[in-house]
Each structure stands twice: as structure tokens, then as C-alpha cells.
Amino acid sequence: MKCGRCGKEFDNTKQDFCGFCKTVHDKNGEPIRDIKGILCYITEKFGAETLLNRRRADALIADFFPKETAARRLAYVALYDGTAQKLVAVREKPFEVKCAAAARCVKSLRDEIGLKGKSAAEAVEAVGSAVGCEISFKKSENPPAAETEVRKNVTDAAEQYSLGRHFDRIREYEKALYWFEAAAAQDFGEAEYYVGVYRLEGRGGVQDLEQAREWFVRGAENGVAQAEYMAGYFYAEGIACEVNEDKAFECFLKAAKNGCADAANMVAMCYENGVHTEKNAELARKWRKAGGTLDEAKPEQAIERSKQAPQIPDPDVSPKPTADEGEELYQSARRCLAEKDAEGAAMFYKRAAELGHARAQCSYGKCLYTGNGAAKDVAEAFRWFKTAAAQKLNIAQYNLGVMYLKGVYVSKDASEAKKWFKLAAENGHEDAAKILKKLR
Questions:
Q1: Where is the domain boundary, 258, 280, 308?
Q2: What's the pLDDT at 24?
Q3: How far apart are CA 276 and CA 122, in angstroms?
Q4: pLDDT of 132 above 50
Q5: Within 10 A of 210 (CB to CB), how many other CB atoms are there?
Q6: Of 276, 308, 340, which one is at a domain's C-terminal end?
Q7: Residue 153 and residue 125: Cα distance in Å, rounded?
Q8: CB-based contact 17:23 (threshold 8 Å)
Q9: pLDDT tens by residue, 222-261
């Protein structure tokens, strides 16, 4: 048989790999070089349960496919994330259950590991085929060569909006506008609101009040409170449209009921002064109370919703993160890593860590420990690991065990190392459990 890689002849009756370049071939004589072929070959030779042991699987793949580095790396990432275990658990289930499990695997590989959506789908499909959980995804076309680095193949509206928010925070407004418009084109309400803001202020491009009004109206139709408020403002002032007091008050009232504190105060002012509606002191007092009551029977719920309402971002003031932004900042850091921006990732990890996000605390500690994206500072890394460990994050507890075991920053202390490895193992960290057995 002629090798499909190097062209040399080899006897396929004695071995299934080329003796010159070590490329493994399938039964049809085709070289195996993709992740699906590699994983299916390993399971055919050693059994599907092999993939449940990621270290053994990785060692076998490295041994049989030493030159297929890209496919090997993708296989290891998928197995490391537990894709095989998740798909094995549902392989006898109905097709809809398998699809849902596979979709969760893709989301995990994309959001937690940082893979592109297409690569994540390819990896999950390959693992599923190997373990007997057949599943396939419709993959989108490759982006044209002229497409810029930032315009990656992301088609999910929520993902596009998230990218827009990421670039908005770091003030790369042209990139932010690109992603907001992509999401808005799919009728994603929050993105429509942000496109309106960008067009209103001329941020990321040309100022266009008429387009701004149209996007605010579209966002309002999708129930976005701040978009409803801005649509009301345009109707009230006659900006890029005729003055329409009835429409203005209707928009303000909807926005107030949906949690916009500014709109609630505007409704109160309208009732106080008889603007856009008739005077009503009692209603004005109720709407003014505590920044505007959305539901007169449940003012505390109204106040809570008003706190969550989006505000128009000020381009001249860096927005201060709030406690519920920790996850969003953490995901922004993951995106920076996917774009090979270590410094940007460290910056977002730090901001999320300061808000109490446990995984961000551990990740920022790793940046400091390795000096990747931030100045190396093992003392500060230890502090962040300990902070995350206090929140029972197993990988942070494991990291503390390693530092005590090796004597990094702290004195070598086997008993203290055991303590942290034990806590990590109890919280599900497999490597900590293995090290603990050796220490005993």
C-alpha cells in the first residue's frame, strides 16, 4: 500500500501504519489525520471506555499519532472538559436528549475553554462518533480571507451581543458596533438598544438621529426598558419625528413598569406637571417614591428591577463594575485568551476577581504565578488562590496544595499540602485525589 502522506510503500497486511512517516491508515487505505478518525481508531483498538480516562487516551493518541498535533490538541481539550463522560451518559437516550447534551458540551468548550464554535462542534461530533453517541452539527461556512481578525465566525445573537459589550468596555467602539449590529439584525433587543445609543452619540461611526430613533423603537418593541425610555424621549422632543405626547407617555410608562428608574421619575414628573398626560398628584407621589414604583402593590420588587435596568453608557467615564458583572468580566477575559491577548485577559480576570468571582480569582492568581499577562508575583498569586479556595473552588485548593508541597512562596509543609489536596479532592478534583494517595 502507498502511504497517503509521504507516498512510500508499506505492507498493510502486517501493520496499519507507514514505517517511514508513522502515519496510521484506515481499512480503506486513507491516512487518519482528523480528530474524528483518530478518536474512532483509538476506541476501535482499545474500547470506548478508554476515552473516559483522558490521560490514558492522550498518551495513546500521542503514541499512535505523534505528528497530528492540531487534532491531538483538540482531542485533549474535548476529553479534558469531560465531553466523553457526558455523551456516554446519554448515548442510549432519545435523539433530542443527545442533541441537548451535545449542545451543552459545545457551549462549555466554547465559553469555558475558549474554542471557536466551529472547532468545538467538530470536537464534540468526533467524541460522540467514537463513543457511540452519533450527533452532527451544521457547520457554517469559513469566513472569507478578507475578513478581519475580529470578525470571527460567530452567528449566535447572544454571543454577538456579548462580544459587543466586551469591546464596548475596552472602548474599541468600531468593533463593538459591528457586533451590536450583527446581533440587532437578528432582532436581539438589548443589541438594538446599544445600536441606538451608538447612532445617537456617533460612537463607532457616523451620528444618525433617525437611525437611532428606529433602533430604539425596535428595542422597545422587544421590551427593553431603556430602549422604551429613549423612544419616549424622541417622541416627546420630536427628534427625527413629529412630537407625539401620547406615544411619549406610553413609552415612558412601559419603561417604568419594566424597571427603568429614569422612566419612573419621568412618569412622576409628567403627573406632577400635567405634561403628556393629566395632572395627578397621588400617582405622581407613588411613582416618585423610592425612585419610581413599578408595581404599587409590590414596591420592593419594582425598586429591585429598576436597579437592574441598563443605563446609557458615558463614553468619557469608565463604567464601574457591579457585583453581578463578575461573570461577564470573567467571560470577557476568556475571549481575550481566545484572541491571544494575555494582558487583556489578566485585566478582566482582576476586575472580576475584585468583585468576588471565584474562578476569576484563581485565574488571576495563575496569571500572577506564571507572569503571563501580568507581572510575576507569587505572593499575590498565593493570596488570590487562598481567596478563591475560601469559596470552595477545588482548583484553587489544589494550587495551594502544590505551593505548599513545592515550597513556593511558603515553606515546604507536607501536612498543609495534604490538607489542601484533601479539600480539593472532596470537592471533586481528580488530580488532587491522586496526589493525596501518593502522599499517604
A1: 308
A2: 84
A3: 57
A4: yes
A5: 12
A6: 308
A7: 18
A8: yes
A9: 889 899 999 998 998 888 888 888 888 899 888 888 878 8
Average pLDDT over residues 357-363: 92
Domain shared by 186 and 256, yes or no: yes
Amino acid at position 209, single letter: L
Q: What is the C-alpha to C-alpha distance for residues 294 and 202, in angstroms, rounded to an integer?
A: 32
- The pTM (predicted TM-score) of the whole model is 0.38
Give the number of domains in the chain. 3
Closest CA to 409 of 439, 375, 383: 383
Name the residue among 343, 401, 400, 349 with its Cα closest to residue 375: 343
265 and 163 belong to one structural domain: yes
Could you tell me the CATH number of the domain that includes residue 169? 1.25.40.10
Cα angle, residue 303 at apex, residues 300 and 308 outer, rounded to 5° = 130
26 Cβ partners below 8 Å, 6+ apart?
16, 32, 37, 41
Identify whether the C-beta of residue 16 lies closer than 8 Å to the C-beta of residue 4. no
Which residue segment(s) compose the domain that 385 sits in? 325-439
Beta-bridge partners for 17:
24
Distance CA 107, CA 101 (A): 10
